[in-house]
Design brief:
This protein is an alpha+beta fold and about 290 residues long. It has helices at about 5-15, 110-120, 145-155, 190-200, 225-235; strands at about 20-30, 30-35, 50-55, 60-65, 70, 100-105, 130-135, 160-165, 170, 175-180, 215-220, 240, 245-250, 255-265, 270. The chain starts with a helix and ends in a 17-residue tail after the last strand. It holds the Pfam family MJ1316. InterPro entries: Cyclic_Pdiesterase, MJ1316.
Length: about 290
């Protein structure tokens, strides 16, 4: 595997690469990984090379220290590239609401240890199932009929993939922190691709000003270190197939519920609220 400084200098000085396509991930103690344009990074400055944890090209990981991904040369033959833009009519420019989301739910067999931690530390446990948001907020539920074909088209562009849930991190807030499990420990690329495919079709949804960090929230606490240690001890590395995303919505004071499920690779739609439809996932286990 190449070192981070080798990757940096190859991109910078090899004329076959366009440095403007590349972003570097910088690890910061007690904070989310910071994304820096490769052209803005200053080698030999305050950031040592061991704190460079990944490189992305067009939003897709091409080098990752933790997982051993090292495929920079694929960018030269077109394997890495931007998500195809949708046709002009395949866009739904509707303002978002925080009462809906497009998310991945881990399989039921992974719920018990996650819920064990959330019961004690997550005030949102009765509002949200264990989940990884791909797009939040999303369009209002009243627009789901128009949104579903666009979600299906977006998800058809990414085949099912195996996610590795490993590593506990936190987002620091003014008075506390949100502790989370990393579902993209093996590869950030398919998550980023799903996010970009959806953002292109729903331009008024999600946050386009900040980098997307897939995460499964475990709880919120003033001191994240004890919760992080507890989660690391109880949650060993887990793998799960990401073969579909769900559309969630919240009606009145109800919790977030699944209104539809869309399969990756095919874009097939399932409606969990209609038990007569074949292929619907089983109901999630109780909190």
């Amino acid at each position: 595997m190449h070192t981070s400084d080798e990757i940096y200098h190859r991109v910078l000085w090899d004329p076959r690469f366009d440095a403007e396509r590349f972003v570097m991930g910088i690890a910061e103690r007690g904070a989310p990984t910071k994304r820096v344009l490769l052209g803005d990074f200053v080698p030999g400055g305050e950031i040592p090379w061991h704190r460079v944890v990944f490189f992305e090209a067009d939003g897709q990981v091409v080098w990752d220290r933790a997982s051993g991904i090292d495929r920079l040369d694929e960018t030269l033959v077109g394997h890495i590239g931007p998500v195809p833009a949708p046709a002009p009519g395949d866009v739904l420019a509707v303002p978002s609401t925080n009462r809906t989301a497009v998310a991945w739910l881990p399989p039921a067999e992974l719920w018990p240890p996650i819920q064990h931690i959330r019961r004690e530390h997550d005030r949102q446990i009765r509002r949200w199932p264990p989940h990884v948001n791909v797009l939040f907020g999303f369009v209002p539920e009243a627009e789901f009929a128009r949104a579903l074909p666009l979600v299906a088209a977006a998800l058809a562009e990414t085949p099912p993939f195996t996610a590795r849930l490993a590593g506990v991190h936190w987002f620091g807030h003014r008075e506390d922190a949100t502790v989370w499990l990393d579902p993209a420990a093996a590869d950030h690329e398919p998550w980023a691709r799903l996010r970009e495919s959806l953002e292109l079709r729903f331009p008024l949804c999600g946050s386009h000003s900040h980098g997307y960090t897939p995460h499964l929230s475990l709880g919120r606490t003033p001191d994240p270190h004890p919760l992080a240690r507890k989660a690391e001890a109880l949650l060993g590395p887990m793998t799960a197939l990401v073969d579909g995303l769900v559309l969630l919505s919240r009606r009145g004071d109800e919790p977030m519920r699944v209104r539809a499920r869309v399969l990756l690779g095919s874009g097939d739609v399932r409606h969990p609220e209609n038990p007569a439809l074949p292929g619907n996932p089983p109901p999630p286990p109780p909190v």
